[in-house]
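Final report, closing paragraph on structural work. Over the funding period we assembled a curated collection of sequence-structure pairs, and we close with a single example.
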Amino acid sequence: MPARARHAAQRHASPSLPSTTQACDTALLNPIWNKYWIATLAASPMLSNSAYIASQIKDLADKIEQAEGGLTHFGRGGGGSYLSGADRGAKKEESQLRKIVRDSSKITREHLQGSMTQAMKNLLFNGASGTTATAMDTS
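Its predicted structure, as stored:
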């Protein structure tokens, strides 16, 4: 490095902190950092979102009951007027069923992602000796 560049680098270099300040900072920051990571890694999305998951399942059950009621009501028609509205009703019911399938798939994906996260944490932190049953245990 040329002398001129070395001089400029030394002039703009940040001053070194005393070792006591660094030791104090390290002593303060390490427990905070460790506490953050312990809380982050110990968190379970399946437990923290249990109320949300339960409400999603309840909403899905309500939608299934509504669709089932619509199908039951739809099957009670009679005569020629029933046939003219059959196609519109069938498409509406199919659309409702598609929404139910999409919503149930979303709930299933979220639950599987939470289960896989727990299994990975178990594998990483408890070793390969952990069983799948304990990896999936969220209680």
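The chain has one domain: 18-136. Residues 79-126 form the longest helix (48 residues). We thank the funder for supporting this effort.
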